[in-house]
Amino acid sequence: MEIFGIPIQAFLGQLLLGLVNGSFYAMLSLGLAVIFGLLGIVNFAHGALYMMGAYVAFIALDKFGINYWFTLILAPIVVGAVGVVIERTLLKHLYKIDPIYGLLLTFGLALIAEGIFRDQFGVSGQSYPVPELLQGATNLGFMVLPNYRAWVVVASLTVCLGTWFIIERTRLGAYLRAGTENPALVQAFGINVPVMVMLTYGAGAGLAALAGVLAAPVIQITPLMGSNLIIIVFAVVVIGGMGSILGSILTGLALGLIEGLTKVFYPEASSIVVFVIMAIVLMIRPAGLFGKEK
User: Fold this and answer.
1) 76, 212 in Cβ contact below 8 A?
2) Three-class SS of residue 192?
């Protein structure tokens, strides 16, 4: 059976690959959207935090024998703590000045992190095994679905929707949004706004690390894995609307699928299709698909 002259197995396989990539785009753009939407920081270090999450998983298994399931909790905590240190020592001094300084600072931090990991691990990729529980594949009749890739999609969607629900539909999320719009008023109600901001940045860093752990068994772990992906993720955030959490999730998944389908029908354009879509969206709606027009 064929779809547009292409065997259905190949078509669905690329669609699945696009959905997996879209899940990573959604997870990473979610963390970026949380940090920008609540703190107003364009966090260029996000790709480095994603890379650090993958390396925490690799080191934990290689040096300490800590398995994948514990690392899903450990890596966000470790990298989230790094994010807290960055926010408390560096970023807190930049909130009331031009956002370009935050972008430049986080870009510099990303380069430093990449340099440190390149010095320690080199540029060759490190492999991370698929956990035993998720090895193998399931035959769906029309295609064979790798169990781990299915897990990545389910886990990413669960985390993304859970984060959206917390920020948009709970009291905690209301405090976070109010604290960034009118910190003096929220502080008057006895809420420690600086601590809340610090934990928000740490949570965004933790989301990047979690995406890194999920990616570790799928790709080669290298110091450049974050910088190779962050430009696409920024494009996802711009298309969805800077600061729009739901927009980042939906756009990340949609662009992953579009990229996968492009590899089927016109492979030469698969590396630029995201940026073409970004250019078109910005011409029609500069605030992004889900962003708020000023």
Assistant:
1) no
2) coil
pTM more than 0.90? yes
pLDDT tens digits, 131-170: 999 999 988 776 778 899 999 999 999 999 999 999 888 9
Helix or strand or coil: residue 139?
strand
- CA dist 278 and 238 (Å) reads 7
Coil, helix or strand at residue 40: coil
Would you give the DSSP letter of residue 135? -
The two structure tokens encoding residue 269: 């354009």
Dist CA 135 CA 63 (whole Å): 22
Query: Which 3 state secondary structure label does DSSP give 127?
Result: coil
Confidence of residue 79 (pLDDT cuts 50, 70, 90): very high
Number of H-type helices and E-type strands within the chain: 11, 4
Q: What is the CA radius of gyration of the chain?
A: 19
Q: Decide if 226 contacts 205 (C-beta within 8 A).
A: no
Residue 121 identity? F
pLDDT of 103-138, one tens digit each?
899 999 999 999 999 999 998 889 999 999 999 998
Residue 25: name the closest of 121, 153, 125, 126 by CA: 153
Residue 106 near residue 65, CB atoms below 8 Å: no
Residues forming a β-bridge with 7: 2
Determine how many CB atoms are found less than 10 A away from the CB of residue 282.
13
d(CA 208, CA 23): 12
- CA-CA-CA-CA torsion sign (136, 19, 76, 86): positive
Distance CA 188, CA 179 (A): 11
